[in-house]
Amino acid sequence: MTKTSKKALDIIIVGAGLGGLTAAAYLKKAGHRVTVLERSASSLGQSEPTADFGLSIVANAVHLLFALGVSEPNLNGVEFTQMWDLTPDNQLTASVPFNTRKMFGAPTLLIRRSRLEKELLRIVDSDEGSTEDRTGGQGTVDLVWNAKVESVDVDDGTVVLRDGTSRSADLIIGADGVNSVVRKAILGEGAQPQLHGLLAYVAHVSTAHLASLPQTRFAVEDAGKRGLAFWMSNPSAPYRVVLYPYSPEAFNIICILPDERWASTFAASKRASLSDVPAKILKEELEKQGFAEEIVQLATEHGSSICAWRLRTLRQMPCQEWHKGKAVLLGDAVHALTPHLGQGVNIAIEDAEALHYFMSRSDGSTKSLKLAMEQYAALRAPRVHRIQWRNLQAAGLLSEDEKAKHGPIDRQEFGKETYAYQGAEKELLKRNKEEISV
């Protein structure tokens, strides 16, 4: 595709999560006029500090963020270089190097979510990144907090907010998560979140505290070897404890366990998260799954509050369900995952870059926008579907027949097919070469 000057579009993004902010930054860079509508009253670090957990930004997304202008030092993260597998009784079974910088040309970074949010907000608010402008004008982003979207008209390109006001645009991007209002406008009730009986308990713990415990000293004693430690109840089961840093000073502990204890609580509250979970309850749940006392102690005796999220996914949605009229989906709104492979935020960032790539080649006509959305979905859906399936495999959520046929996930194979991604344009060239060679 040629890089000719195109019409600047008026674009509404519903949701200021990491996928939505990445899309806003990329579309601004291309010269479009973007309005981001976020239901929260302020940024994550200010409004929901308990939800400010660590995450892994893997090479496939790091390439795209660095190209956007994200500063690695500003993230204050830790480079992921090692993985440890342990049994429930704390026996080390594997210690494996993990070096995406060497293999795929970009590091994998373990960071605090609010750090990346802050970086994206910096880019959205700054004048940097206008050099790619193909529209004849400089892009803008208007970020509106406390703006809950109640309904979307995908044919007219109009959203109605809780306060009764409405806004219209050439394009509406649904980056509003697993309970997406935009997805409902596109599909009705045709893609409901799926439950798997899983809950992720999350707590923060200091690096200094881990260094004082004999069972976790291996994870902190060598500053050049930092990464993820997994204690798994069974390689083919979804229950596990995961320990990983998100800054030089702190780690997250995530315990993925059954959610049945909280089923009535979730039904009554209509929410999918809990705060201030008693350590005693987490202790009981870990003991039920056979985790040793030192692992139970690690997860519960750290002085940090414990919160929890019910894990939900979406089915594989075919290309034609990703968009309709003037609306299109990205991130968890179209492919929510459990955290077992750490790819949820990464493929949302991939979506954002790809959507920008195709939209920035549109002339703004209805026909051109429809084609751009079709091309975006056609590029993204096959890759996303592979990752969704691999995620279910890693989580132990395949059927018994599928487990017997495919066995446990091969991490090296998954890395090769996932981490080398470097954006929409290179992916298109790769696919074209593959088609020619067939």
Automatic annotation (TrEMBL):
Keywords from the named record: FAD, Flavoprotein, Monooxygenase, Oxidoreductase
Top-rank taxon: Eukaryota
FAD-binding domain span: 144-357
Oxidoreductase is among the record's keywords: yes
SUPFAM superfamilies, sorted: FAD/NAD(P)-binding domain (SSF51905)
Matching Pfam families: FAD_binding_3, NAD_binding_8
A molecular-function term among this protein's GO annotations: monooxygenase activity
Segments traversing the membrane: none
Homology family: Belongs to the paxM FAD-dependent monooxygenase family.
Name of the molecule in the record: FAD/NAD(P)-binding domain-containing protein
Biological source species: Ceraceosorus guamensis
Lineage: Eukaryota, Fungi, Dikarya, Basidiomycota, Ustilaginomycotina
